[in-house]
Amino acid sequence: MTTTTGLPAFEGPMCPLPLSHTERIVLGHGSGGRMTHDLIRTLFQAHLGNPYLEAGNDFARLPLGIEPYSEGHLILSTDSHVISPLFFPGGDIGRLAVCGTVNDVSMSGAIPLYLTAAFILEEGLSIETLERVVQSMRQAADEAGVSIVAGDTKVVEKGKGDSLFITTTGVGWLPSHYHLRGGEQARPGDVVLLSGPIGDHGIAVLSARGELGFEAEVKSDVAPLNHLIQAVLKAAPHTHVLRDPTRGGLATTLNEIAQQSQVGIRIEEAAIPVRPAVRAACEMLGLDPLYIANEGKVIVIVPPEEAEAALAVMRQHPYGAEAACIGIVEAQPASRVIMRTTLGTHRVVETLSGELLPRIC
């Protein structure tokens, strides 16, 4: 039997339409075809939608040439997030991805404006899980006051991706009256401030994995710090260094600053805030809180005449309520961090060697 076109007609049952797969990620979601478009439309745009994403391009045209962003510097930062488990006390991979990149941009003194997000999804990932993560990203972006304006999605075979990886890129604007360049501007006489207790994030992740051997009532400190940092810069406009002590903890970050600036940093163990539950967990596991990861803390190094104002404004912010002065910058020993212990002795605080806590960000 033939059709009017002269081509043979198909006989028997026709192939049904493909399944919608609304409960689990399958390889087809990364094909770039209808399933990819449906996932973007029904999940990502439903929660992250704005005019830039809705344009449907592989780029976002951003209005940075308008007031108040007509003078200054464009700041760009990117980071990948591979934490296990995806959800932990106080946060999840979605909030971590947004806050981590917002904070990286903010450490330059810039005002974060836009993010992009790329997702590596493993076949079999629950759609419900992905939606929870995306909703969390939206909440964190709203809190920070940024928009997620572009993205990408890929799907890998089961066993090749460990559920979900997220890469985020942040764009910010650094006003021309700020002259922060990084960790190389610490000067002898500067005061070292810390926005709050250390070690919360690393211990919360360990607890979520069940690797502590006991329950620790610790929540991750993951948070967007951009509003806190802008308040600090208004109170202390000559701030020299901003850094967030993430992987490698406070000790490693202070060493990086000391090496970049070729100065010595002297800290007081008794002045460094550590929650009792974090300290207890570290003692039981033989860990040092100085090397435990943080995701919502900032080190602020300021001239002595602005230290009091900076500390006061930090303590007025929810994410800096427990801020403390933990040390000073000295000329010598160059590139070294020295800590006076609670026993009154002094020890060299080295950079973290090896990987203390895997998969914490």
Automatic annotation (TrEMBL):
Gene3D superfamilies: PurM-like C-terminal domain, PurM-like, N-terminal domain. SUPFAM superfamilies: PurM C-terminal domain-like (SSF56042), PurM N-terminal domain-like (SSF55326). Residues 187-338 form the PurM-like C-terminal domain. InterPro entries: HypE, PurM-like_C_dom, PurM-like_C_sf, PurM-like_N, PurM-like_N_sf. Transmembrane segments: none annotated. Residues 70-173 form the PurM-like N-terminal domain. Belongs to the HypE family. This is Hydrogenase expression/formation protein HypE. It comes from Thermanaerothrix solaris.
